[in-house]
């Protein structure tokens, strides 16, 4: 919740009949926006799950799924709901690619995904849910580089505790 | 007599060991569903198929964790089953016919036979044209993705109390700045109030002779009542995509999210009208700077006119306090600027116990009425 702290003086002295009631403001303000707290870095991250992998200490997580036939990228919340997704199964991306799997597919998927994330207002994503020995491979490195160049930061800011 | 014998046995009389009967209280019965891994035959481990890679096991485990189980789970506890939602969107355009699918397969086959594309893919030099991809995406899976993001920002829950719609019409909203820059509004962008101080350029595909309504609301900014919104702009009976020739019911007011309140959602809604609608009840006076007149509820507004219009387009942005907001409060709204501060919810402590186990001395500080903690770090 928010509490009214102070108000600044106004410059006009004349009061119009129209705006005379504007001054009445409730002392408590509730912001219904579910994305407000996480954008202000004040929301809680799920800090349990330390004995399992992957951990759920994030607001948004970037997950790359590479199968034998296509590559998919999802940005999801810790309860599993997908917010933004991009896949080489979509016609818009598939028609420009020679093969929907492989390093070039991952790279271009990264570029498309970065554009969609920025449009949706997701600037910070957690990219820890990658298997360590697979992280070194070319396709995931190209995907990560494409996301960084697209403007998405792959590190979530620390929550503000005080 | 039997009771005396039982009590004696419980106490351990006559040299026998004392035992508790709590185990007898819970009845042991068969499980209410199949146990996990029941289908794997572990009697003959040699014959079992062993995956030689970790990834295949992990993918199975992820798929298994996403399945619904018959026992109570944490996911069930945090995600209650959603109520069925009414769909208020325009009727869907025709799905892909056999001819279109054939054309797509032909394009893919040509791609695969193209030697240049194969060489570029092998040498990793391919860079697909992002603008064309975006244009195609807006026609095919764009509406569903926008609906999903809007669902996560709680727009349908706050605007229409749960009823959802798929924005089939691609709405393009751009704020133009003094230095010839264009700040576009997509689904969930960050736009500052100084960038949004003048009415934006709105464009969308429209048939000749069709009528539209454009609406800009602030879902979170109401200073008195949490459940109502502020109307910033309302233009009705727009012929085609020409906003200037529509009837401006409420003139444009720049966004004014108060300081300390965080990010507010501002939603552009485009409604398609079947016939010219009379909005005389909603007409606001031309310089409308009274917050009471601007208080608005999209749910009631849509309920009043739902027979003649359907939501067709959606675009929204997030907005935070900025110095131009002070100017709006002082000059346009003629009021003192409210400033808020974030108040954290109080820290939870479980009810106090007379003999706390393994708690430090500061346990007593947590339940003291006065403010001075006397035990410090102990």
UniProtKB/TrEMBL annotation, chain A:
Subcellular location: Mitochondrion
UniProt similarity note: Belongs to the universal ribosomal protein uL18 family.
Region (Disordered): 1-30
Protein name (record): Large ribosomal subunit protein uL18m
UniProt KW Thylakoid keyword: no
UniProt keyword terms in alphabetical order: Mitochondrion, Ribonucleoprotein, Ribosomal protein
CDD domains per record: Ribosomal_L18_L5e (cd00432)
Superkingdom: Eukaryota
Major localization listed first in the record, in broad terms: mitochondrion
InterPro entries: Ribosomal_L18, Ribosomal_uL18_bac/plant/anim, Ribosomal_uS11_sf
Any single Gene Ontology cellular-component annotation: mitochondrial inner membrane
Gene source species: Syrrhaptes paradoxus
GO biological process, one term: translation
Biased composition (Polar residues): 1-12
Gene name linked to the record: Mrpl18
Molecular function (Gene Ontology), one example: 5S rRNA binding
Automatic annotation (TrEMBL), chain B:
Subcellular location: Mitochondrion
Predominant localisation class: mitochondrion
InterPro entries assigned to the protein according to its UniProt record, in alphabetical order: PEBP (IPR008914), PEBP-like_sf (IPR036610), PEBP_euk (IPR035810)
GO CC terms: mitochondrial inner membrane; mitochondrial large ribosomal subunit
Gene3D superfamilies listed in its UniProt record: PEBP-like
UniProt feature coiled coil, ranges: none
Pfam families xref list: PBP
Coiled coil is among the record's keywords: yes
Swiss-Prot/TrEMBL keywords: Coiled coil, Mitochondrion, Ribonucleoprotein, Ribosomal protein, Transit peptide
Signal peptide range in chain numbering: none
Record family assignment: Belongs to the phosphatidylethanolamine-binding protein family. Mitochondrion-specific ribosomal protein mL38 subfamily.
Protein name in UniProt: Large ribosomal subunit protein mL38
Source organism of the structure: Syrrhaptes paradoxus (Pallas's sandgrouse)
